[in-house]
Write the structure tokens for this entry.
Amino acid sequence: MGEKSFQLFPEAASSIAGQVDGLYAYLVLVSAFFSLLIAFLVVFFAIKYRRKNDEIPKPADEHSIGGMVLEIVWSIIPLGLSLIMFAWGASIFFTESRPPADAMEIFVVGKQWMWKVQHNEGAREINELHVPVNRNIRLTLTSEDVIHDFAVPAFRTKTDVLPGRYTTEWFRPTKVGAYHLFCMEYCGTKHSGMIGTVYVMNEADYNAWLGAGSGEGSMAEQGESLFNQLGCGTCHPSAMNKQNGRCPNLNGLFGTTVVLKDGSKVRADESYIRESVLYPQARIVAGYDDIMPTFKGLVTEDGLLKLVEYVKSLGPKNGTESSATAAPTQTSSSPQAPARPAGPARAGNQ
Ligand code: CUA
């Protein structure tokens, strides 16, 4: 970031920043054009049609039919200009709300008043987010308490972070550097202090940074030990035990469509797994009884994310391997996926 004393815009450091700035420029230009035009006409007509003598014209003389062509023109042109705003804005909105399938996944938990970040590989950080440059990054966000909002102006992106729900945000950083991270939803006394820094690094630096991480194992591995610690494995067939018929099999579950007791269907995504841990009775799988106790209050949001990662690592299909090698077809967010170049530093991490 250049040390400029005066900057109208934050640095444009993501793939979407140019589009957002383009739309913004269009909005400003259209507004400025019509503001100036109207201001000019107000003054111009005020002078041109000012009262020149005391004679009051008769209403009948003043009556004019009006120009149909004029009426149509000044309706159609603004309509077109605003429809461009709508279409352009919608297109950017759709791009921003649909993370690419190859995006690398990072998890963010907001709480009063800090940001906790977890990487799949196990590294954790607070009020900092390290990402590699020129990679699609997908954040899965949730809050432990109130509504926060994760915003990185240099990436032209912001997303509400809600308690009890997962939201996503994605971006592709295009410039190595350090960028401000803000909470943009008033969330209490120290809201203004809920800030941090996003570090965009080149791939080698990022891998070195990851390698220096926690040494606690990947999120899926940590999720697996939590899974065992909570005794989930005594009922749910998973990596290490077999089907027992009482509880749904978690192998190959993630990303599939599940048929529920009432006949409706649900996609087994992050939110569904989270809900099933906290509110097991909410959406019961067809063929199973309402026997699972709630784990609400027993698992933190961090822990839930790890459990979700563990279930994810069991793969969409044939997920019978252990978490260390599973998820060959899932996403490149898995550390073992081929899309991710194996950094020398990571070998020491696992
Ligand atoms: Cu968190 Cu404002």
Remarks:
- The pocket of dinuclear copper ion is lined by residues 110, 113, 148, 183, 185-187, 191, 194 (CB under 6 Å).
- The chain has two domains: 10-44+66-216, 219-322.
- The domain at 10-44+66-216 is CATH 2.60.40.420 (Immunoglobulin-like).
